[in-house]
């Protein structure tokens, strides 16, 4: 039994090396593709694949091989898979992850193994500040920024009390801290739920009893689907629900009418008027039969960034490659885009809301711009200059 | 028991030769997988002592894996990186947790024992989930490897592998002795017929509790190694799914003969790694294999070997 | 505060009823056939998927809900014939191995057929709203319907077990399986029936939560362990025990989730209390189980001889 398994493992693992002996660029895509939040990973993955297609199968002018791996939503498993990608598959770049707790687990194995980590979504505060790393680039945003946009919106609307709700993990804590750092009104309550919780009856009852002026929630993926569906069922429709990563193109197919009109913060929307965005939305729809989300944009931009940098500097000289990545000389779907000293983006932030299109499908749509060309608030703590 | 005698040296020898073979084959990552195999083999081996020999099916055994892993994180955070000290601390912590919970659990029998050990395992899990200083639910990355006599032996993949293999070999020899001793015979006797043992004057409780604590301490050592292998600790190491996996390893290999647990762990880790290279839907084939073994090969892998090799007479 | 406690009690009741539906079949299979079935949670998940598929195909909630029952009965019979029948005189550990394998197979099959993303089921119009409770608090009509359906099924089960011939055999089987087969009862057929009905109940539970929770491949995993906790607290083989324990677990879990953080707020700063309280709350259920087993090693309604 054992020799057989080992022999087959040996055969299998040597095969890819034999087939790609020449200088193909190897890129790992490590995103969560199972469990309730699987669809977020699928969007990011499809964004990467679409970018590869647009580039004609070549990245930075070189043949490219993408290796897609499921992080399974579990930090310990993801750390193991990241090591396998870097040490066994010999990838030059890893695009991933979706979730911030996974980022904390895979950052060391990827960067110490000599690869560069490009995050299509997760932007935990520690990597923006003290733990910033020359080999980590975050093309998405810093976790605090979307809630900050919503808090700013509430400040402008003179909403004086808010109730907060988030899952109990790195990004959830970042998210509520980000909100509180800007919000001028009173936070009347904070609720944390375990990552992956699907029934919010107890939390909704507590919110109903507190009757806050507004609720801010951060509930990505399947959690967001259920929160929004249960919101109106519990008779809370009179309390405005503002959210980040809770209502977007990954969750709308399941939320449908329950999400209409609810305000969200985002760095992108399908109707954003930037060069190439409309084409991207159409190409994505044609290829995958659904509307793209900001996760898809993260994946797409991640590969486009890598393409621009490899084109400019190649992969031999590590310093030059870092500088080329930092230059962000690519055309982001979000328009104007550059990196701060900590390798997190400087970009615009918007309010969006869910709308129903003519053909009966749902997507997010632009409401107004909240921040113009904003950098995150941790960059000062990062020793990189 | 002949199978344990015959197979154990073969298995250990095979594993010893693996790293040079792996680097010769141009696939050093195989050593990483083999290290995982050896570490889980150690954990499964410790479970076999209570499950196979004492009929105490613990569904919370992964708690000790986690306790060992967190011992590395906590001591490492305090600057104590010596592997020996870390293993000692892990075993001590595991003993402190195993003594009271084992004593309470042993009030129950059969399926109730399974569930009360699950309860204690889950309590340990949630305690670590709520420690935000240790990363809470997210776990935490370790800053570096443990050291052996001040040397960074574990920092190389091969070093970690051979240290793990040495510990596995020691545990295999030690447990083989224990299970053949009077202690082991009493333990087995309690499994077969607890009433008769009591009638001939043995109170099963102290024997069972001792076995439970020894198993916990050994498993915590596997946890120390696991933390070094992943350079990451998280409460997920102590989840009930992990405990379930350990049981499955022992049962797949064949319970109650030590080497079965080792073979089961090798097979499960090997299948996971091997099948995952074929398809994202590898769990389908993996599940099918488990069902087929359960249906058609009583006694798991060692049962299968016994049937194939007719010479096996108990020695 | 009193209103909130009331509302949370109802929430706990609703969760408990759901647990009971899944636990009822498991406790019978376990108690009568002495069979450890780790795949029971997956049947709950399959029920959810069958419901989602049917309601997408028919567009009719009620019709789909009715069709789920025979579909799950059929799946239960199929699994019984293919796997479970061959295992029920085998050691517990072989059953654990086989049913663990079955969990992997069914979860992966579901992903293969329906993808990994959660599916949703639209609520029927008539049950979509909420009713006023006290003050500003309201309760969803659909969840009231879930409670009512669960209670009706509990009543039906009680009637079958306490008042019919099959029920008599079940009770006898739980008390002394050897005696029942010695009396010439076809134990295999009894097992088939119990297993299939258990699958149907679990699948029905999965189907009725689909509109509130949406359906995903991991949903069976999370309920399986709580279901085992319920049947062990109640005493293996006792449907009455499972009912009491399910409500107990449902209420303890829900109350702990809310009042854990509130109580901790007296000791810690709010953010820390919210986090620590929330993560410690799930432990309450396990403390409850350990406590029950400490005082009554065979559960609340279990026979002291043990299983």
Question: Which keywords apply here?
Answer:
heterotrimer, B: 315 residues, mainly alpha, ABC transporter involved in vitamin B12 uptake, BtuC, two-stranded antiparallel sheet, 2 strands, globular, C: 307 residues, two-stranded antiparallel ribbon, 75% helix, 2% strand
Explain this structure to me?
The complex is a heterotrimer of chains A (385), B (315) and C (307). With 385 residues, chain A is an alpha/beta fold. Chain A folds into 2 domains: 23-143 and 274-347, Rossmann fold (3-Layer(aba) Sandwich), CATH 3.40.50.2300; 145-270 and 349-374, Response regulator (Rossmann fold, 3-Layer(aba) Sandwich), CATH 3.40.50. In chain A, 41% of the residues lie in helices and 22% in strands. Chain A contains 13 helices and 14 strands. The model of chain B has no long low-confidence stretch (mean pLDDT 88). With 315 residues, chain B is an all-alpha fold. The radius of gyration of chain B is 19 Å and the shape is globular. In chain B, α2 (18-24) packs antiparallel against α3 (29-51) and α4 packs across α10. The radius of gyration of chain C is 20 Å and the shape is globular. Chain C has a two-stranded antiparallel ribbon with strand order 1-2. The longest helix of chain C has 32 residues, at 2-33. The N and C termini of chain C lie far apart (43 Å). The interface between A and B is large, with 36 and 37 residues.
Estimated radius of gyration of chain A: 21 Å
| Structural class computed from helices and strand pairing of chain A | alpha/beta
Q: Compute the average pLDDT of chain C.
A: 87
Count of individual helical segments of chain C: 11
Of all chain pairs, the largest interface belongs to: B-C, 45 and 50 residues
- Give the fraction of residues assigned to helices of chain A: 40-55%
- Write down the oligomeric state: heterotrimer
Tell me the series of helices and strands of chain A, N- to C-terminal.
Answer: HEHEEHEHEHEHEHEHEHEHEHHHEEE
> Helix fraction of chain C?
over 70%
Number of helices of chain A: 13
Task: Write the element-wise H/E pattern of chain C from the N-terminal end onward.
Answer: HHHHEEHHHHHHH
Parts with pLDDT < 50 across at least 5 consecutive residues of chain C: none
N-to-C terminal Cα separation of chain A, in Å?
55 Å
User: Could you tell me the number of beta strands of chain C?
Assistant: 2
In terms of per-residue confidence, which ranges of chain A show pLDDT below 50 for 5 or more consecutive residues? 1-22
Mean pLDDT figure of chain A: 89
The CATH architecture assignment of the largest domain in chain A turns out to be 3-Layer(aba) Sandwich
Shape, principal axes of CA atoms of chain C:
globular
């Amino acid at each position: 039994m054992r020799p057989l398994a080992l022999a087959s493992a040996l055969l299998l693992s040597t095969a890819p090396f034999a087939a790609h002996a020449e200088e193909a660029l190897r890129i790992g895509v490590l995103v969560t593709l199972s469990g309730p939040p699987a669809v977020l990973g699928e969007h990011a993955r499809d964004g990467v694949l679409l970018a590869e297609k647009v580039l004609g199968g070549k990245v930075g002018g070189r043949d490219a091989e993408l290796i897609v791996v499921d992080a399974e939503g579990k930090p310990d498993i993801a750390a193991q898979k990241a090591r396998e990608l870097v040490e066994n598959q010999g990838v030059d770049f890893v695009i991933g992850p979706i979730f911030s707790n996974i980022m904390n687990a895979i950052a060391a194995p990827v960067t110490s193994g000599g690869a560069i980590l490009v995050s299509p979504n997760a932007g935990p505060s520690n990597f923006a500040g003290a733990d910033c790393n020359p080999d980590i680039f975050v093309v998405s945003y810093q976790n605090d920024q979307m809630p900050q946009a919503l808090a700013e919106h509430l400040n402008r609307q003179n909403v004086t009390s808010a109730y907060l709700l988030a899952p109990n993990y790195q990004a959830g804590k970042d998210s509520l801290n980000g909100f509180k750092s800007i919000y001028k009104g009173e936070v009347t309550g904070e609720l944390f739920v375990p990552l992956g919780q699907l029934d919010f009856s107890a939390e909704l009852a507590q919110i109903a009893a507190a009757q806050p002026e507004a609720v801010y929630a951060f509930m990505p993926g399947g959690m967001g689907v259920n929160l929004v569906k249960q919101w109106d069922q519990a008779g809370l429709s009179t309390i405005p629900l503002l959210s980040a990563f809770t209502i977007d193109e990954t969750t709308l197919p399941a939320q449908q009418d329950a999400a209409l009109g609810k305000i969200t913060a985002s760095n992108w929307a399908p109707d954003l008027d930037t060069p190439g965005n409309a084409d991207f939305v159409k190409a994505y729809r044609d290829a995958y039969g659904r509307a793209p989300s900001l996760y898809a944009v993260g994946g797409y931009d991640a590969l486009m960034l890598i393409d621009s940098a490899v084109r400019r500097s190649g992969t031999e000289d590590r310093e030059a490659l870092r500088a080329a990545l930092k230059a962000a000389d690519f055309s982001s779907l979000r328009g104007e885009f550059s990196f701060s000293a900590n390798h997190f983006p400087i970009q615009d932030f918007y309010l969006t809301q869910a709308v129903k299109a003519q053909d009966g499908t749902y997507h997010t749509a632009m409401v107004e711009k909240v921040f113009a060309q904003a950098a995150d608030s941790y960059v000062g703590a990062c020793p990189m200059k | 028991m002949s199978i344990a005698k015959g197979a154990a040296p073969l298995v250990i020898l095979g594993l010893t030769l693996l790293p040079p073979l792996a680097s010769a084959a141009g696939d050093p990552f195989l050593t990483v997988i083999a290290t995982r195999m050896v570490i889980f083999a150690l954990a499964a081996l410790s479970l076999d002592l209570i499950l196979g020999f004492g009929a105490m099916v613990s569904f919370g055994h992964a708690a000790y894996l986690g306790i060992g892993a967190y011992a590395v994180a906590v001591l490492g955070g305090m600057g104590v990186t010596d592997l020996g000290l870390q293993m000692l601390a892990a075993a001590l912590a595991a003993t402190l947790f195993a003594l009271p919970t084992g004593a309470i659990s042993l009030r129950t029998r059969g399926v109730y024992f399974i569930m009360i050990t699950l309860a204690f395992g889950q309590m340990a899990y949630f305690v670590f989930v709520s420690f935000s200083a240790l990363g809470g639910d997210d776990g935490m990355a370790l800053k570096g490897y443990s050291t052996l006599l001040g040397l960074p032996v574990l920092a190389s993949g091969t070093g970690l592998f051979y240290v793990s293999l040495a510990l596995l070999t020691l545990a295999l020899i030690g447990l083989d002795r224990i299970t053949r001793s009077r202690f082991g015979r009493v333990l087995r006797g309690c499994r077969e017929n607890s009433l008769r043992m009591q009638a001939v004057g043995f109170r099963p409780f102290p024997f069972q509790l001792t076995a439970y604590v020894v198993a916990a301490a050994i498993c915590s050592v596997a946890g120390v190694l696991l933390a070094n292998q992943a350079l990451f600790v998280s409460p997920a190491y102590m989840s009930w799914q992990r405990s379930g996996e350990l049981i499955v390893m022992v049962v797949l290999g064949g319970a109650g003969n030590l080497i079965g647990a080792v073979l089961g762990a090798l097979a499960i880790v090997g299948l996971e790694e091997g099948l995952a290279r074929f398809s994202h839907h590898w769990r389908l084939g993996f599940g099918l294999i488990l069902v087929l073994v359960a249906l058609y090969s009583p006694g798991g892998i060692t049962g299968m070997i016994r049937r194939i090799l007719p010479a096996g007479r108990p020695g | 505060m009193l209103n909130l406690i009331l509302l949370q009690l109802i929430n706990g009741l609703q969760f408990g009823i759901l647990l009971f539906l899944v636990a009822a079949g498991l406790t019978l299979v376990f108690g009568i056939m002495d069979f450890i079935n780790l795949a029971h949670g997956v049947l709950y998940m399959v029920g959810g998927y069958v419901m989602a598929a049917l309601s997408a195909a028919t567009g009719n909630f009620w019709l789909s809900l009715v069709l789920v029952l025979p579909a799950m009965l059929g799946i239960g019979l199929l699994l019984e014939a293919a796997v479970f029948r061959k295992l029920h005189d085998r050691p517990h550990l072989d059953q654990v191995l086989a049913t663990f394998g079955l969990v992997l197979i069914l979860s992966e099959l579901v992903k293969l057929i329906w993808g990994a993303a959660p599916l949703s089921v639209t609520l029927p119009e008539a049950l979509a709203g909420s009713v006023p409770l006290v003050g500003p608090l309201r309760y969803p009509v659909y969840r009231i319907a879930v409670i009512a359906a669960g209670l009706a099924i509990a009543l039906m089960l009680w009637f079958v077990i306490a008042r019919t011939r099959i029920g008599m055999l079940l009770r006898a089987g739980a008390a002394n399986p050897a005696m029942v087969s010695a009396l010439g009862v076809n134990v295999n057929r009894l097992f088939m029936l119990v297993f299939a009905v258990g699958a149907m109940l679990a699948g029905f539970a999965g189907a009725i939560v689909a509109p509130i929770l949406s359906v995903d491949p991991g949903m069976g995993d999370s309920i399986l362990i709580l279901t085992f906790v319920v049947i062990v607290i109640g005493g293996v083989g006792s449907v009455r025990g499972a009912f009491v324990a399910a409500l107990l677990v449902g209420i303890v879990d829900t109350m702990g989730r809310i009042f854990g953080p509130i109580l901790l707020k007296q000791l810690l700063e709010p953010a820390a209390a919210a986090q620590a309280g929330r993560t410690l709350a799930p432990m309450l259920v396990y403390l409850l189980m350990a406590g029950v087993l400490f005082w009554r090693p065979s559960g609340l309604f279990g026979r002291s001889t043990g299983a």
